[in-house]
Design a protein that fits this description.
about 500 residues, L-xylulose/3-keto-L-gulonate kinase, about 40% helix, Nucleotidyltransferase, domain 5, seven-stranded mixed beta sheet, EC 2.7.1.-, transferase, FGGY_Carb_Kinase, globular
């Protein structure tokens, strides 16, 4: 009798590292997660120790295997996804030459300013439809060359986080297409590195770091080495597929695979993305990357305005107000705060604690606070503010698509809260499909693994087999006017915030 086979997806996110195991029908058999230690040694620096990150990956892989109750040799293939941006510099032996730089790092902001002052940023945008940002390799490599020349000289490969971890699993180091297109050094029209982009970015001497051919997401990139097998519990020789950039992986894991299908992921970041055959009408703030599907581009809107802002309020305030309550009880308290939207609560929260979507110097803020407001009113405002920002991303994305959105597929940490998910549905005033399972990024990676070893013919077949809807939320018409008003107020608050930062 043929043994049952499973697929593993590993997701190295901005906050947590997750691993999930799926059967070929898409059932999430087991999942594990952990939080890697992050160091901020100086203002603007956000780093992680490479060995500590690898150890965290080993731990979640081993924990998922234990939780699944299956034998390691039943894993047909493994693949990965990870946050876009940041950088992992390794030497020819795959040894890190410096700490991993996380995508929220802003050390290269002066290098970034030079790209804008010189006009290079605009010329880059004309090719990639991406404006450079501080946590992107196009800016970070300039910083390393100028500030850490010895490390820069030692580096042989510049990798994304998931490509680095894949290299630790296989001892084969190479970049994958969707992640590389996030470097702002790939021409989306050709799907390959652009000599012109290296020249415009002032990185002609960095091209040596990108010498390996770009891998297709659903191609076999190597196999698990004996050393990695001993550390993870996987079977040596297990195929490892190249994988995806995490936004693309979440869209794939939500079956948002065609024009008219919108993937919304609200986790650490708030992201909205869709596939399209053209990006000629896309808003300037829409990022364009290559996709796993031929002749399609991934259009995305997003920022670090997601649940990371909620976690800040929960950890700094709510948990201290209710010290005797468990995490589960605190989450229940949060759900209660937004169960019935309050038309009298005019507080607006701008979730710019870690990044701004408008003015480059924008910071978080509360508007319309009064002495009678309670902690519950502020909590509701925080949760609504995150969703109002997500709504703004979705609205901007809508402007540039060739086909109106027919389906909205929701994933991310927000799905653990039915009340919070419902508020997003009420703001959008459109049905929202809540996806089954908790790990859509890992699911998208697992789909790549399945395709790579022939379990599926392609992404459409993989999605049909592995992606399922848990529930469909319907918008409550009685809140349409309330949230239309709040969305309008939110836009006015952003303009006021922009004015404040222009004057200061």
């Amino acid at each position: 009798m043929k043994q049952k086979r499973f697929l593993m997806g590993i997701d190295n996110g901005g906050s947590n590292i997750k691993c999930a195991i799926f059967d070929l029908d898409g059932t999430e058999v087991a999942a594990a997660d952990t939080t890697p230690p992050t160091c901020q040694p100086r203002e603007g620096f956000v780093e992680r120790d490479p060995d500590a990150v690898w150890k965290c990956n080993c731990e979640v892989i081993a924990a998922a295997l234990r939780g699944s109750g299956i034998r390691p040799d039943q894993i047909a293939a493994v693949s990965l996804c990870g946050y876009g941006g940041g950088i992992c510099l390794v030497d020819r032996d795959g040894q890190p030459v410096c700490p991993i730089v996380v995508s929220t790092d802003t050390r290269a902001r002066r290098n970034l300013e030079e790209l804008y002052r010189s006009g290079a940023a605009g010329r880059i945008f004309e090719i990639t439809h991406q404006y450079p940002w501080a946590g992107q390799p196009a800016a970070l490599l300039r910083w390393f060359r100028e500030e850490r020349p010895a490390l820069f000289s030692r580096a042989a490969f510049a990798l994304s986080i998931k490509d680095y971890i894949r290299g630790r699993l296989t001892h084969e180091f190479a970049a994958e297409l969707t992640d590389a297109s996030n470097f702002n050094l790939v021409d989306p029209a050709t799907g390959s590195y652009s000599e012109r982009l290296f020249h415009i970015s002032g990185l002609a001497d960095s091209k040596r770091l990108f010498g390996a051919p770009l891998l297709h997401p659903a191609s076999v990139a190597g196999t698990v080495t004996q050393a990695a097998a001993e550390q993870t519990g996987l079977t040596a020789g297990t195929p490892v597929a190249a994988g995806l950039y995490d936004v693309s992986s979440c869209a794939t894991g939500s079956a948002a695979l065609g024009a008219g299908s919108l993937a919304v992921t609200i986790g650490t970041w708030s992201m909205a993305s869709c596939l399209d055959t053209s990006f000629s009408k896309a808003d300037d703030s829409t990022i364009v990357t290559t996709s796993a599907l031929d002749r399609h581009f991934l259009l995305e809107q997003g920022s670090a305005t997601g649940a990371v802002n909620f976690n800040w309020y929960l950890d700094r305030f709510i948990s201290k107000m209710y010290p005797d309550r468990s995490k589960r009880q605190l989450y229940a308290l949060c759900d209660q705060a937004i169960l019935q939207p309050d038309a009298q609560n005019k507080i607006l929260f701008i979730p710019y604690l870690y990044a701004s979507c408008t003015h480059p110097n924008g910071k978080g803020a509360f508007f319309n606070l009064s002495g009678h407001h309670t902690d519950q009113a502020l909590l509701a405002a925080v949760m609504e503010g995150i969703l109002l920002c997500a709504n703004r991303h979705i609205s901007l994305l809508k402007k540039g698509v060739s086909t109106p959105f027919q389906a909205i597929r929701l994933s991310g940490g927000i799905c653990a809260s039915p009340a919070w998910s419902q508020i997003l549905c009420d703001i959008l005033q459109a049905p929202v499909c809540v996806m089954e399972g908790s790990q859509q990024g890992a699911r998208g990676a697992a789909m790549c693994a399945g395709i790579a070893v022939g379990e599926f013919d392609g992404f459409s077949q993989a999605a049909e087999a592995m992606v399922h809807t848990a529930s469909v939320l319907s918008p409550r018409a009685q809140y349409a006017q309330l949230y239309a008003l709040k969305a309008n107020m939110y836009e006015k608050a952003l303009k006021a915030l922009d004015y404040f930062h222009e004057q200061n």
